[in-house]
TrEMBL record, chain A:
Protein name per UniProt: ChsH2 rubredoxin-like zinc ribbon domain-containing protein
InterPro entries linked to this entry: ChsH2_Znr, NA-bd_OB-fold
SUPFAM superfamilies assigned to the protein according to its UniProt record, in alphabetical order: Nucleic acid-binding proteins (SSF50249)
Highest taxon, organism lineage: Bacteria
The organism's taxonomic lineage, starting at the top: Bacteria, Bacillati, Bacillota, Bacilli, Lactobacillales
TrEMBL record, chain B:
Name of the molecule in the record: Putative acetyl-CoA acetyltransferase
Record GO terms (molecular function): acetyl-CoA C-acyltransferase activity
Pfam families: Thiolase_C_1, Thiolase_N
Gene3D superfamilies noted in UniProt: 3.40.47.10
Every Thiolase C-terminal domain range: 313-419
Enzyme class: transferase
Native species: Lentilactobacillus buchneri subsp. silagei CD034
Domain Thiolase N-terminal: 28-134
Signal peptide annotation: none
């Protein structure tokens, strides 16, 4: 029987405690993040919570000039961020994850981006982003840059 | 001839051909979306030689009505009244900019199922203006004055579970096709820029020949006026600024008012109404989420596989024409190669050499595409399919492809979450 339970609330409550949760399929072992109650590979609803850890692997850095507004079709996604620190877009994966994701990445500048891109893939720490709707979202930050 | 993949074969017997419009145009003064809706529906019915009483069902696509049309949800009854269709069954499709294509497939399936014989598929959208709840529909205001603040059609496409783009800009979706191309086919960022700029010039060239397109001035002429001998140099200049890392202004969708309609019917009665019916061979659709990298590209792959697997031996190069959504430049190049209409890894050369123009070797979007013809959200698919029908009947006017268009591939995308492929054939 499908186990009806809060998924979104559990995930976002956990972020308030500094923990990033995903879900692991108990039938095929695949991990889905952000969490979903159905396995994206085998379709099972037999999934349990799993901690994703505090570090991910950044596979691609997609440096964008956040000052470029374009027309209204294109909007920067930091519209709801309480802090407007510069960041760039990245593609990464969790060490225990099953697929790549898009995420905001802090610590990349015009000056260091070429050097960082040359070192990819890179480890990055979770950087929780405060949104003005009263919740947190998961981004990442390159601190002491270390090639994986 | 290709084999129709429906339990009951379906034909297109009528289409509207309204020009793309803007309510900023003084010629539109006093009009509202309702008049244009009625115009499109009657035009398609006249073209199909049917009357409203002959229509068994309506499928209609619109997605911004809750914002732009007086805050109304699914104005199905009133829209039926305006076209003389009150009392008919009607289905409202809201699937972002894929809605028009999905509405078409729904109309086709309504006939293919045997439940209805003649179905009208129609779309309506007014992206850049709105009317307030307390005023009639002709009292239009620029969307920037929308009471609840500026709304972003890019942003509203993403749900608020996880896909609200917490940190990932809307730009990324369309950038990825460029990233993918550079990564896999080894061209430089500069070559990609020239490819996208050439594509914009090719599409504007097409639109300059199409009286139904919104934009007609060629970039080559604009370059001359600005003092440039080389149009590509103009396209690389501040006259055509980058709005993302790869996409320039000329490579971004052009929103405008659209109304369109198409009539489909059971193939066995099509000749009774039209001397040139177009057969609907097949369709395939996939939806996915934008949370995963390269989603746009993957949806093209998935639709191609689902569509082609039912037609053994089919190749993209079998098609005489491809019409494909081009919200931004990368989409046209990626889809044309994934579907095999252009050779993989070589498509950029076709754009650079102008071979995708309507009168060239491999025409793509002879009407001008979403970035020069225009784009009206949920109606876009209906208008794109209408342009395909006109091409196949040899009635597209100045932008008519100068060779028989017997097999046409129409590929549409909307919302970053839905991609559709439709095969049409002239079997007369």
């Amino acid at each position: 029987m499908y186990p009806l339970r809060p998924i979104l609330k559990t995930y976002y409550d956990s972020l308030e405690d500094g923990k990033v949760l995903g879900m692991k399929c108990q039938d095929c072992g695949k991990v889905v993040w952000p969490p979903l109650p159905t396995c994206q590979d085998c379709g099972s609803y037999n999934l349990d919570w799993i901690e994703m850890g505090d570090e991910a692997i950044i596979d691609e850095i997609r440096f964008e000039d956040s000052s470029v507004g374009g027309d209204y079709t294109f909007r920067k996604a930091d519209e709801f961020f309480t802090e407007k620190d510069p960041y760039c877009v990245s593609v990464g994966h969790w060490p225990n994850g099953s697929h790549q994701f898009h995420a905001a990445l802090y610590g990349v500048t015009e000056e260091n981006k070429d050097d960082l891109i040359a070192k990819l893939p890179l480890k990055a720490k979770v950087h929780l982003i405060q949104l003005n709707g009263g919740f947190k979202s998961v981004g990442f930050e390159l601190e002491d840059v270390e090639a994986k | 001839m290709m084999k129709q993949q429906f339990a009951r074969p379906v034909s297109v017997i009528g289409t509207s051909s309204l020009p793309q419009r803007s309510f900023d145009d003084p010629k539109m003064a006093g009009l509202s979306p309702y008049e244009l809706w009625a115009d499109a529906c009657h035009q398609a019915m006249d073209d199909a030689h049917v009357k409203p009483k002959d229509i068994d069902k309506v499928v209609y696509s619109q997605f911004a009505n809750f914002i732009t049309m007086g805050g109304v949800m699914a104005p199905v009854g009133s829209l039926e009244e305006w076209a003389g269709l009150a009392g008919k069954p009607i289905t409202h499709i809201e699937q972002a900019c894929a809605g028009g294509y999905i509405a078409f497939t729904e109309a086709v399936n309504s006939v293919a199922s045997g439940q209805y014989d003649i179905v009208l598929v129609a779309g309506l959208e007014n992206p850049k203006h709105f009317n307030s709840r307390n005023q009639p529909a002709y009292k239009l205001k620029p969307i920037k004055e929308y009471d609840n603040g500026w709304w972003s059609p890019g942003r509203v496409l993403f749900d608020t579970a996880y896909t609200r783009f917490d940190g990932v800009s809307d730009n990324l979706l369309t950038e990825e096709q460029g990233k993918h191309y550079i990564k896999h086919y080894g061209i430089t960022e500069g070559e990609l820029d020239d490819t996208y700029n050439s594509m914009a010039m090719n599409l504007r060239y097409n639109a300059s020949h199409n009286p139904r397109a919104l934009m007609h001035e060629r970039y080559e002429d604009m370059a001359k006026k600005a003092g440039y001998d080389d149009p590509l140099e103009y396209m690389r200049s501040e006259h055509n600024p980058k709005i993302t890392q790869y996409i320039r202004k000329s490579g971004s969708v052009l929103h405008n008012m659209e109304a369109g309609a198409i009539v489909v019917c059971s193939a066995d009665i099509a000749k009774k109404y039209s001397d040139h019916p177009i057969q609907v061979i097949d369709d395939a659709t996939v939806s996915n989420t934008t949370r995963y990298p390269f989603n746009f590209h993957q949806m093209n792959v998935d639709v191609r596989d689902n569509l082609y697997k039912k037609h053994p031996g089919i190749k993209g190069s079998d098609f005489d024409l491809m019409i494909t959504t081009v919200m931004t430049s990368g989409e046209q190049l990626d889809s044309a190669e994934v579907f095999g209409y252009l050779p993989e890894g070589e498509g950029y050369k076709y754009e650079l050499e102008g071979k995708t123009r309507f009168d060239a070797e491999k025409p793509i979007n002879p009407h001008g595409g979403d970035i020069s013809f225009g784009h009206g959200f949920g109606c876009a698919g209906v208008c794109m399919l209408g342009e395909a029908i006109l091409q196949m009947r040899g009635e597209a006017g100045g932008s008519q492809v100068p060779k028989p268009v017997n097999k046409c591939l129409v590929r549409g995308m909307g919302g970053g979450h839905t991609t559709v492929g439709i095969i049409l054939e002239d079997q007369n």
